[in-house]
Design brief:
This protein has 339 residues and is mostly beta strands. The protein has one helix at residues 254-259; strands at 4-9, 15-21, 24-29, 35-39, 43-48, 61-64, 72-73, 80-83, 86-90, 98-103, 108-114, 118-122, 127-131, 137-142, 148-153, 159-161, 167-169, 172-179, 182-187, 192-196, 202-206, 222-224, 229-234, 237-242, 248-252, 268-269, 273-278, 283-288, 294-299, 314-320, 323-328, 333-337. Helix content is 2%, strand content 50%. The protein is globular, with a radius of gyration of 21 Å.
């Protein structure tokens, strides 16, 4: 098997690099720690083991390989691995405000620019998307030479009123991804801004016109590139947006109503199911995307959790192949596999 450069950031914030070859992992940079590789493939799964228990104390997925047909949403911490040979680093002290791209193979600097934004997106055409710290400006940078392709200031969209009627400045909350040369940005107003990835031109702003009270989407909305849809499981409703027609549909999930479970968190999904966690009822579920029925529900065990403690619930869901990885609020990793 070819060698791969893989990365893990431990709980102290230190960067750890490994070489992979013949099923052996060797740390080549970073301080001593008991790091565990759970799985690899299109995504690398890492966790920080606490003593000898089955508990883990950090994010499951640290680095996604970049595929030629898609874009990758980036963790905005530094240093940041872009590929097996490229890394972004941020300047400190006299170099504060600078960002550099390092070639890990040649051990040299590709380029450096005066930008103190947070990197959020790496696209298939070698663009880097940066969002300013106040979340109102997005810049698109070429990762070949660091030159600016375009920038867009979302304050040009005006303000919005929160539920308490307070006026808020529009900000970028999340970059959802790219579909057909359009970058989808989830705004703090609950609406979705579409920009041309090549020019930065505003294409449209999507609203949820099917909601009986609000014209907004929730932060848990995801971009399903393969199906050409935006999807969100909001409480007990499945909301979908067809990206061609931009038509919004909203369907109540009767199984969730009958079981008195709901979702208010980020989901995981594949072609057939949407996986969710009900924090209040400590339940995991799999919603069939075709039938809108629940094909699976699982209540997390509360064994070892006293009545005075917060109950155990799923906090972070990641999906790879037939396996669903669930990190709970007690830092225990649960792995489920389809039969």
């Amino acid at each position: 098997m070819e060698k791969e450069l893989i990365v893990y950031r431990d709980t102290a914030g230190d960067l750890n690099l490994f070489n992979y070859s013949n099923n052996l992992y060797r740390k080549i940079f970073g301080r001593d720690s008991e790091d565990v590789v759970l799985d690899f493939g299109s995504k690398f799964f890492f966790a920080k083991r606490i003593e000898a228990s089955d508990c883990f104390s950090y994010d499951l997925i640290v680095y996604d390989k970049i595929e030629s047909t898609s874009s990758s949403y980036l963790n905005d911490s530094f240093p940041l691995i872009l590929s097996p040979s490229k890394m972004l680093v941020k300047g400190y002290g006299k170099e504060k405000g600078k960002t550099k791209q390092i070639d890990l193979i040649r051990n040299s600097i590709d380029w450096e620019i005066d930008i103190d934004f947070r990197p959020k997106l790496l696209t298939q055409n070698n663009y880097l998307g940066f969002v300013s710290r106040n979340k109102n400006l997005i810049k698109c940078i070429s990762n070949k030479d660091g030159s600016e392709i375009w920038s867009y200031d979302v304050t040009n969209l005006g303000t919005w009123q929160d539920y308490d009627s307070s006026e808020k400045i529009i900000q970028v909350s999340r970059i959802l991804g790219i579909y057909e040369d359009q970058v989808y940005l989830y705004l703090n107003s609950g609406k979705i801004l579409l920009l041309n990835i090549n020019t930065g031109e505003k294409i449209s702003v999507l609203e949820n016109d099917k909601h009986p009270k609000y014209d907004t989407f929730g932060d848990s909305i995801e971009l399903d590139i393969k199906r050409g849809k935006l999807i969100q499981l909001a409480r007990q409703d499945l909301i979908e947006v067809d990206l061609q027609s931009r038509e919004v549909s909203m369907n109540p999930i009767e199984d969730m109503k009958s079981l008195n479970i709901e979702n208010a968190s980020r989901i995981a999904y594949d072609a057939n199911h949407i996986y969710f966690t009900d924090k209040n009822n400590q339940t995991l579920g799999a919603l069939n995307r075709s039938t809108h029925k629940l094909d699976w529900a699982y209540k997390l065990s509360q064994e070892g959790v006293s009545k005075s403690e917060q109950p155990r619930y799923g906090r972070d869901l990641k999906l790879r192949g037939n396996r669903l990885y669930v990190l709970d609020n007690k830092f225990t990793l649960h792995i489920f596999e389809k039969e």
